[in-house]
Amino acid sequence: MDIWERLYEAARTQYRPAAVSPFLYARHVVCALESGNGEIYTGFCVESACGVMDLCAERVAALQMYARSGQTVVRRLMAFRDTPPSGGGSGMPCGACREFFLQLSPENRHLEILTDYAKRETVTLEALMPGWWGWERYRENGAL
Fold it and tell me: What is the pTM of this model?
């Protein structure tokens, strides 16, 4: 079983779309990520009537990783609804998630995001965020 299949199987168990209340809907997008040390963490999205409280599956998985282990580096990530990413932009993290991962660690620029499960096609976070504004701050702080 390759890493992408392991990530798919881990995320798939989280997929259980449900209305939590008349104001909250959850588990209709899921994510699994591989941390810098090879551990797998999962997350699911939560959407609310008040968008400011929404959480994407990718950030929930990353926060699980950080809360449980203190890690900030992510090697690989897969996100999807009811089927694994199949190209054409499916499985892509939103802009807020992309920003969050870069702010979490400069090493996350190397993060591989699965874009097509069947073909095992990926894209790096750095390729999705050319000219990111935060590189200068990392340089000023000696992190690059």
Answer: 0.95
